[in-house]
Design a protein that fits this description.
Elements (H helix, E strand, L loop, with lengths): L3 H7 L1 H9 L12 E7 L3 H4 L1 E2 L2 E2 H16 L4 E7 L9 E7 L3 H7 L13 H10 L1 H4 L5 E7 L15 H11 L2 E8 L5 H11 L21 E3 L2 H15 L20 E6 L2 E8 L2 E3 L33 E4 L11 E4 L47 E4 L2 E4 L27 H22 L2
Helix pairs in contact: 4-10, 6-8, 8-9
Length: about 450
C-alpha cells in the first residue's frame, strides 16, 4: 500500500520505477470506486480564503490529489445543485481510472454568485442509486465537500439533519461516505452527525461540536488549500488501502503485500500475515497440554491441575535424624507429577564396634547395660572401633610351696581363704581398669 506521504514526496516517476520492478498482477487489480460530490453553491464563488475563491481553491486541490491517485482508484464527479437553485446534483463524470482530465474539464465553469443553494441530502440520495456508483464488486465511496449548511430557499430548519438520513441510505447501498467541511461557515453539528452515521468519524472526535472552530471535529475540517489537500489525500489513502482479499486493491502490481494484523490466543498476543487472501501464521503463544512444571501450559488460569509436585522437584523423606549414621532419604517428582519412592534413607541400627554411632544416640561404640563385652566376642574389648583381645589374668600357682611367714605376724597363711580373696580383688581391679578404658 502506498501512503499519502509517499505519494506526495516521492512523485509519479519513482512510483513508476517501483511498479516496473515488481511483477505485475493487473488481472487482479480491483481499485476502489470513489465519487467526489462537490458543493457548487454560490457561496463557493463569493467566499474567499487568502484572496482566492473557495471554488478555485477546491478545484486546485482536487487537481493535486487526482494527479497522485489517477491510476489507483476509479474516481467520478458530481456537483450540486444542478442545474441551479436547489436541484439535486447529477453525475458529471462516471467513476473510472485516469479521469483527472475529464474531471478538470467538468470543473472549468465556476458557480454563479447568486441563485445556487446547497441541496446536500438530495444529492447524496441520487448518489446512492446512481448505476455508475452502485454497480460492481469494488469498494465504493462518496466524498462530500461542502462549505455550508443543508439549505434551500426558503430555509426550513427541519431539514438541517436530512443529510444524516441520506448517509444512512448510502450505508444501506454498501457505499461509505467521507465528509469534508471547507471554510468557516459550515454546519459543524450536522456534518459531525453525518460522519458518525457513516462510520468514518475521526478517531478521538467530539460529536457534540457545534462550530467549525471547535476542536476534534468528527468530519474533516479544512480551512485552506493545504488542509483540503491533506484531508483528501488522507481519505484517498484510506480507500485505497490494500486488504487481505487476494486482489490488488491499490493497483500497484502486488496482491496483499505487507499486510499484518494482531492476533491472539488464550496464552497471549502475536501477529499474523496475509497470504493469498487469507490470514495465516499467527505467532501468538499456543495453548499446550498441561504438564507438572509450574506453568499454566493450556492457559486456562489454573497451574498443574492434579499434580502433587513439579517434575524433577526433590524433597527429603524417611529418617529425620541426622546424628551418627542416620540420614534422610530423597524423593523425586516424576513426569506424572507424583512423588517417587524414598531412596537413601538410613535409620538407627544396633550398635557395633566399628567407630560409628550406629544407633544415632550421639555415642560411638557404647556398651549396652553392664556387659562391657557385648560389642565384641568374649575375650576382646571394643577399642577405637576395633575388637582388641584382652590378655587373660591367671591366679598364682597354688601348688608351689609359699615362703613361710614368721609366727605371730597376723598374716594369712598360704593356702588359706586370704589367698582366694586376693585373687578376687585382682580380677575386680582389672575389670575396673577395662571399663575406664572403654569409656574414654
Amino acid at each position: 500500500m502506498r501512503t499519502a506521504a509517499r505519494l506526495l514526496t516521492v512523485g509519479l516517476p519513482l512510483l513508476g520505477l517501483a511498479a516496473a520492478a515488481r511483477p505485475a498482477r493487473a488481472d487482479q487489480c480491483s481499485p476502489p470506486r470513489m465519487m467526489m460530490v462537490l458543493d457548487k453553491s454560490s457561496s463557493m464563488q463569493t467566499g474567499t480564503i487568502n484572496g482566492a475563491t473557495k471554488w478555485s481553491i477546491a478545484v486546485s486541490a482536487l487537481d493535486t490529489v487526482l494527479t497522485q491517485i489517477d491510476g489507483q482508484a476509479e474516481v467520478g464527479l458530481m456537483t450540486f445543485p444542478k442545474p441551479n437553485q436547489c436541484g439535486p446534483g447529477t453525475v458529471d463524470v462516471s467513476p473510472a481510472v485516469a479521469t483527472r482530465t475529464a474531471i478538470m474539464d467538468a470543473l472549468a465553469t465556476h458557480p454563479p454568485t447568486a441563485g445556487n443553494y446547497t441541496p446536500m441530502s438530495q444529492t447524496l440520495d441520487v448518489a446512492a442509486t446512481d448505476p455508475s456508483l452502485a454497480a460492481g464488486d469494488a469498494p465504493r465511496y462518496v466524498v462530500l465537500i461542502s462549505d455550508g449548511w443543508q439549505w434551500c430557499d426558503p430555509y426550513d430548519p427541519g431539514t438541517r439533519y436530512d443529510g444524516v438520513d441520506s448517509v444512512g441510505r448510502l450505508n444501506a447501498a454498501g457505499i461509505t461516505t467521507f465528509v469534508v467541511g471547507f471554510g468557516g461557515a459550515v454546519d459543524a453539528s450536522a456534518l459531525s452527525a453525518m460522519a458518525v452515521e457513516a462510520g468514518t468519524a475521526r478517531a478521538g472526535c467530539d460529536p457534540t461540536n457545534d462550530a467549525p472552530t471547535d476542536p476534534d471535529p468528527c468530519y474533516y475540517q479544512a480551512d485552506d488549500q493545504a488542509e483540503l489537500i491533506a484531508a483528501l489525500m488522507d481519505i484517498a489513502d484510506v480507500v485505497s488501502v490494500e486488504t487481505c482479499d487476494g486482489l490488488d486493491n491499490d493497483c500497484d502490481g502486488e496482491v496483499d503485500e505487507g499486510l499484518t494484523r494482531a492476533c491472539a490466543t488464550a496464552c497471549g498476543a502475536g501477529a499474523e500475515v496475509c497470504v493469498d487472501g487469507a490470514w495465516q501464521g499467527c505467532d501468538a503463544p499456543q495453548p499446550a497440554t498441561d504438564t507438572c512444571d509450574g506453568v499454566d501450559n493450556d492457559c486456562d488460569g489454573v497451574t498443574d491441575v492434579g499434580c502433587e509436585c513439579i517434575t524433577g522437584e526433590t524433597r527429603g523423606c524417611g529418617e529425620t535424624e541426622t546424628e551418627g549414621a542416620c540420614s534422610p532419604g530423597v524423593q523425586t517428582c516424576g513426569d506424572d507429577g507424583t512423588w517417587g519412592a524414598c531412596e537413601g534413607s538410613v535409620g538407627p541400627s544396633n550398635e557395633m564396634c566399628d567407630g560409628v554411632d550406629n544407633d544415632c544416640d550421639g555415642v560411638v561404640d557404647e556398651a549396652s547395660g553392664d556387659d562391657v563385652g557385648n560389642l565384641c566376642e568374649p575375650g576382646a574389648m571394643c577399642t577405637d572401633g576395633d575388637c582388641v583381645p584382652v590378655d587373660p589374668v591367671f591366679p598364682e600357682d597354688e601348688s608351689e610351696e609359699p615362703v613361710g611367714q614368721p609366727a605371730g605376724c597376723g598374716c594369712a597363711a598360704p593356702g588359706s581363704d586370704g589367698g582366694t580373696l586376693g585373687g578376687l580383688l585382682l580380677i575386680g581391679g582389672l575389670v575396673t581398669a577395662g571399663l575406664r578404658r572403654r569409656r574414654r
